[in-house]
Structure formats: C-alpha cells, structure tokens
Amino acid sequence: MVASSGISCIKYNIRIIIRPMAKRISAIALCRVSTAEQRLSNSLTRQELSVQNAADELNVGIEKVWSGDVSSKAGNNIRRKDLMEMLTYVRQHKSVKYLIIDEVDRFMRSLDEMFYWKVVLKDLGVSLWFASNPELNDDSAQAKLLLSLDGYKAEGSNEERQRKSIQGHKAAIREGRYTFPPLPGYMKGNKPGIHVLNPLYCDIWQSALKDVASRLYTPSSALKRLNSYIVPLGKPALKIDKFNHFIANPFYCGTIVVGGQVNERCEKGLHPTLITRAEHESILEVLALRPNRQIRKLQYNPEFPLNKIIEHDCDDHSPFTGSFQGNGQGKHYPKYRCRRCGKQYHRSEVHGELNSVLSSIHYDGNQRKEFISALATVWKEKQQDNIQHIKTLQKRLNSLKTTKSSLIREHALSVGIQKEEIAEEITNLRDEIALISDELTTYKDIHHDLVEFIKFSLEYTNRLKDDWWDLGQEDRLKCQQLLFPDGIRFQSNKKVGTGQISPLYRLVSNKKDLRESRKSLMVELEGIAPSSSV
C-alpha cells in the first residue's frame, strides 16, 4: 500500500476466466395427415401445437416444420420425399438434435421402416421425440418395447384401413362407380364415384378415340391432333405411351376395370360413355397390331358415307368431310363440313335431301332395247372362252362314244386274253365319258344364262338407288358415276342437286312433290328431259 496526496489506493491482481459458450441446440418437426378429412378437422393445427409444447419443454427452437398429407404406406418410407429432405437438412445443420413428432402413427405406419429411420437419425446425432408420449423418448429397453407396441398398432391399423379401402373400392365398382381420379375427358360429379363429362375436354377426347377406332388416323396422328387442342387450353402435351394407355381403357365405352389389389370389373358403369364397345374393340385391335406395322389405314369413315362423294356448292366445289361435333355439354352430333368454306350441315339433313333425289329417279324403260343390246354384246365377249371350251368338250365326248361303240362290237367277237383287254379298255372309256359329261353339265345353256344375266342387270340397275347406302365406299363411288356422272352437290338452299343424271334413268315425281323435285336439280338435266307421272 502506498500513500500519495492523502489518497489511499488498493491494487488488485484480477484473473479473468473465459469459458466457451454452449452450442445452440435446435429441432425440426413433422406434422402429417393421411386424409382430406383429417386436414379439415384441424389435425395439423393440433399436431403443431403439441410439437411446439414439446420443444418448449426441451428448451429448443424449431428451425423447420414439414407439414402436409404424405402417404406412410408400408414399403414407401425408405425413400419418402419428406424424410429424405429432413435427412439432407440435418446433415447440413449440425445444431439439429431432435425430430419432434406428435404420435408414432404420424411418423409412419411401418414398424420395420420406423426403426430403420430411428437408427439413421441416431447416427447423425438426432433423436426421435414423440410429443404425446414421453415414455418412448429414451433408449431404455422399456421405451423400445413401448415404441414397438405403438408401431405395431399403427401398422395393424394401416392394414385394416387398406382392407376396408379395398372392400369399399370393390363394392363401389360393382355398383358402377369409379372411385379413382377422373380419366381425361371427365371430372368429378355431384355423386361420389360417378364422374361426368368435362365440357372443356370431352369433345376433344371423343374425337381422338373415334379417330383411332375408325382407323382414319393412326395413334400417333390422332395424338398430334389431340395435343394441338389441349396445349392451347393449358394442358401439357401427352406422349404416345401415356396416350395409348388412356385410349385402351374400357372406361370410355362404359366398362370399369381396376386391377391390382382391388381386381374388380363392372360392365355397365354409371358414367356417360364417349365411344361404343365396338369402337373400343377396334382401338384394342389397332394397338395390338401397331408394333407389327400391320394396320391398314382406312380412307373413309363408314359413319359418313358421303365423304369425298358429295360436294358443297361453294366457289371451289370442295368435297364434304364428316365428323362428330360436340356442343360442350356432352352431346355430340354427326355433321358434314365443307373443307373450303367451313360450313356445317347435320348428317340427317344431307342424307335426307339425297334420299329425296334418289327416290325420284327410276330406270328409263324407253332405253330398254338399247340397254339389252349392249348387255348382249358384253355377255358374248365374256362368254367366248366358255363357248369354245364347251365345243372342245363336246367334240371329245363324241369321239369317245364312237370308240366305245367299236370296242363293244369287237369285244363280242373276241376270246381269251384279247377279250379281257378290250373289256378293260371299254371300262376306261366309260369313266372318261362320265367325267366329260359331268363337266359339260356344269355349264348352263348359253341362252338361259344370257336371259338370267339381262334380268339381273335390269333389276340391279333399277334397284341401284335403293342399295346406295348398303354399298361399300368404292362401289358407291362407281354408283355415283353411273347415276350422277356430273357429281352431286349440296346447295346453299340445303337442296341436293346435280348437273346431269345417267341416260338410263329419268326423274319421276308426283303432283305433291313436283315443285320440290325440280328444285333439287341445279341445272336442266343433260341427256334426258325430266318428266312426271301421275
């Protein structure tokens, strides 16, 4: 101690000890629901509150919470997305020492996978912490036993839920209800499992299905058309494998088929259909043949027999093309459309007008002699080979009969071995004569065949207009050339007309339809003047 200026000072030796601050400890949390009902019942909110209370008791902060509806089905948890994200997070944030969860079944419902994740997290220094049951949170044998029991209950509950779910799906499908997400072209309706047509996409999908079924388009070209419609509406473009998977589904023709654990089928679903069963079978056939490249693309649609035959009376006389057009409310109408101007007419309207013209056309009896003469000429040309063959057969037959007669006389005078040889030769001649006679009987009398041919031709010519709709497309084109050599046109006044009908026919009308029949002709007929009969 030293005195100075009357003031006393004391000098201390001070040692400061600096201790390292404790590392901050934190936690992450998981809150999970498995059904929409649980979300609506505020299950997540209750779990979040329970997890926060546990963090407060541990005196740790929660850095991040994973919350949502993630499946914990057994077998899906090793690479479960939320758990993989947590694993990455705790590896990057060493301060995390707890994963806090409300209850065991909120973590997962698989006993084996639960212990797998418990070990993985423990190796990273992270402990599982169950907020609602603290007895499970240490490493004692009793805690492990209790955790096993809770895990067993969760897994058993999950199996029971799956069993009930499968039975529920089976029962619904047997009733005709589809309890899975709607297929393209459909959306959920007011009644569970009974899907209704999506007004934005049902027409597009129906066109794609019918395109493939009719073989007017290959699956690839039908998909190209489909994507050109759905992409502008905000839907991603489909790939061919996904497209083929959808169009092969019998749901579109009214049959519900679900495989896997459900494994149930219903032939008559309660949902509206987009195609017929026959069209579905055609699609399956196309898809089955496609890998072998054996599909023969059809050049016409049997639903629209006037495709490329009837023309629209616009500037370019463009041929009609037919397709089913939707009204956006699930109803579809068959219509013909002009390729040039785009005008559309209902199929029944176009067919009805053509039927009116066909019904007024009859074979012209005044041309009978000329027609029969022409048929006879054609017949003779066709029968020349047959006539020559019959003459040859008849000549051979006469020669054989003459030879046989001579041998019979010789046989009567011969004896011994010679007699036996002549008898054998006579037998051979008889066999050959019988064969030639049988062959000759297969050829009818030329005159009789000619008469039958002419009768058939006249009957066919007169019936041609009646058989119009039953003909194949190629034959219908030939028929059109015979009946209407100048083509058929659908006019702006919705009447069917032609510039000329065949000279073999005449236009017949009665008093009631005289005016309408004449209106149905675009110009004065060439080669025959219209006449009327009362």
Descriptive report:
The chain is α/β, with parallel strands linked by helices. Among the domains are: 26-164, 3-Layer(aba) Sandwich (Rossmann fold), CATH 3.40.50; 186-292, Putative Large Serine Recombinase, Chain B, Domain 2 (Hect, E3 ligase catalytic domain fold), CATH 3.90.1750.20; 367-462. It contains 16 helices and 18 strands. The strands form seven sheets. It has a four-stranded parallel beta sheet, sandwiched between helices. A three-stranded mixed beta sheet has the order 11-16-17. Strand 1 and strand 2 (7-9) form a beta hairpin. Helix 7 (202-214) packs across helix 10, helix 12 packs antiparallel against helix 13 (416-441) and helix 12 runs antiparallel to helix 14 (446-463). The longest helix has 46 residues, at 368-413. The radius of gyration is 45 Å and the shape is elongated. Residues 1-12, 291-295 and 510-534 have low confidence and may be disordered.
Largest sheet: 4 strands, parallel
Strand line-up in the sheet with most strands: 4-3-5-6
Structural class: alpha/beta
**Helix content percent band:** 40-55%
Question: Which fold does the CATH topology of one domain refer to?
Answer: Rossmann fold
Which term fits the overall shape? elongated
User: Ends: how far apart?
Assistant: 155 Å
CATH C-level of one domain: Alpha Beta
Average pLDDT, all residues: 76
